[in-house]
Amino acid sequence: MAICYHQSSLKLSSSYPLPNLFIPKSQSQTLTLRCKNLSSVSSSSTTLVTEPEPIFTSVKSFAPATVANLGPCFDFLGCAVDGIGDFVTLRVDPQVHPGHIPISHIDGVGDSSKKLTKDPLLNCAGIAAIAVLKMLNVRSACLWAAASVLRMIAAAAAAVAVNEIFGGHLSVSDLVLAGLESESKVSGYHADNVAPAIMGGFVLIRSYDPLEFIQLKFPPNLEEKDLLFVLVNPEFEAPTKKMRAALPMQIPMRDHVWNCSQAGALVAAVLEGDLKGLGKALSSDRIVEPRRAPLIPGMEGVKKAAMEAGAFGCTISGAGPTLVAVTDDEEMGREIGDRMVEAFMEYGNLKASAMVKRLDRVGARLKKKKKKKKKKKKKK
Amino acid sequence: MAICYHQSSLKLSSSYPLPNLFIPKSQSQTLTLRCKNLSSVSSSSTTLVTEPEPIFTSVKSFAPATVANLGPCFDFLGCAVDGIGDFVTLRVDPQVHPGHIPISHIDGVGDSSKKLTKDPLLNCAGIAAIAVLKMLNVRSACLWAAASVLRMIAAAAAAVAVNEIFGGHLSVSDLVLAGLESESKVSGYHADNVAPAIMGGFVLIRSYDPLEFIQLKFPPNLEEKDLLFVLVNPEFEAPTKKMRAALPMQIPMRDHVWNCSQAGALVAAVLEGDLKGLGKALSSDRIVEPRRAPLIPGMEGVKKAAMEAGAFGCTISGAGPTLVAVTDDEEMGREIGDRMVEAFMEYGNLKASAMVKRLDRVGARLKKKKKKKKKKKKKK
């Protein structure tokens, strides 16, 4: 059954949502958020407005990277990939001045790390963290903070970290809303990265007002064949403005029907575990990819190389320049990756790196947690 | 798993496919095709080109009616509905002049029957019959014939009848191709009526060159809840030209993304047996329905009445004027139908009739068959 979550408090952005910007450039991002020790805040289950207290003194969360804009499923379907993503460490820290959640450091993102602000009010992880605190009704002044640029996945990790440190009261729907609040401030009002980062697997965003999404359950592996993504990342800064400007404002009816049918085929392939069908649908976009491909040097040759090496399909991941190919065999996945890297050099004169990743079926989760020591309670 | 059929011999029509025209106005259509007694044609399994001989002296086939243009799935997804459709009776008749397959009579289609030609070369059933004969490599001159206008489902019935009378050698893919040949000559090159009519259930047309379609398996009934279609047909001749002209040539990107996501949601709902989700997606078209609805008097009020009566969703069936609503309860289905009929009178000043139908999961099939008497064979 489809899992649908409704939240009526959202407002739809009035402008057309911008494309997703997630580019998996490095293996992990560690954001450290600190908040004031909240153990003094009383928790009461009898009042309508319950303010929870932290149950851990620190947590470390992980959110998997995502691949959005999946071919014909531009702007409404994304999936999470295993073994790559962002980490957020959150600590209860009595030294922190109330009203602040300073971000102590950001690391592991290579060149892009320099661009990430540590200002919690502007950093994507900070914005998501604050949104979760508001949802949890944590009123302590120290819990205001916030957000940044590329790495929206840190928002998912931060949302989960804050929720878990306070006992995990929120639903995934709430966490997606928190991530969406972050994404809307940083890159645009779309949830096709943050939803799969939080929930894992494939997630179809059905509507924003109310927010409603469907988790598409990819079947368990059959006959040792697994869905594998080959992610090839060229050393090339995608011209974001051009990538956005390349999107057509109007779509011919014929292309609309074609892409719609391919999107339907992709959804069917996911639900039925049809890897070849998934690859085929992924490769079939006639609207976005043809316009963005010329902006990625060598893209056409790289896609051709992927297909010739046996990939079931290949397209741009997110807004590029990373390309994603699909296969069912790890050895072949590495071969496809090698051919794509070579082709990036041959046709685009770009260095590139490849990795082969599985579908992440879990989504954002805690990796470490440190429990609070129990205080002796006075019996009434 | 998705079932995909490939046929590389097809050519894509160069113009944008016209909308589907099937309007379920009456319960059945009987076409009688006659062909020459073929028992004298020798059958040889040893030659490369095998010409089969008929194994029945007569057959009666049935093809279920279909609902196409399912909301956001305009022009690429249709389904078959049970207990309503077309019949074709086919007889081996030595009296018929070689080179002809006369259609003896067409009945049961009310006013529209007058418009259906008995000329087998122009009648949809005739064209499909001829296409099947060609595929079967039946070279007898008598087997050239047939086709007509509205009722494309007769083409499906005819294709199955001819195939079965010769022993059923063709695949469903071939039969769909035969139906498609008929449809392309009569109303346009699209298979979202003829494919579900032949295969039953929901069929997504993925491409035409090569022809490729995916049968979306709707799960068996759960907890006695079944997918029910409420079909409400007003006494109103839909202005076909206006219906076609109402289609936009260009789609705003925002509407394209919306409809694509709803199409994906509809496919997911079908595969997961999520009746509410199916209804919701059905109701969510922002491209075709808003433009065609004003051409059907009272449509807006009728849809509203359906939803208020508890329908999960409601949209135009095919190109109209029939409306289709979805529910999971037969009693409620009748109630929804009554409210829709009343609303057609109230808001559109139109008489209308309603019926509640289940999904046809089988597709076109033989209803009757009469076996040939075996001739005594001389032993060599």
From TrEMBL, chains A, B:
Residues 364-380 have a biased composition (Basic residues). Residues 154-201 form the GHMP kinase N-terminal domain. Transmembrane segments: none annotated. One of its GO terms (molecular function) is ATP binding. The keyword Kinase applies. One of its GO terms (biological process) is threonine biosynthetic process. Pfam families: GHMP_kinases_C, GHMP_kinases_N. Residues 267-342 form the GHMP kinase C-terminal domain. InterPro entries: GHMP_kinase_C_dom, GHMP_kinase_C_sf, GHMP_kinase_N_dom, Homoserine_kinase, Ribosomal_Su5_D2-typ_SF, Ribsml_uS5_D2-typ_fold_subgr. Residues 361-380 are annotated as: Disordered. Keywords: Amino-acid biosynthesis, ATP-binding, Kinase, Nucleotide-binding, Threonine biosynthesis, Transferase. This is Homoserine kinase.
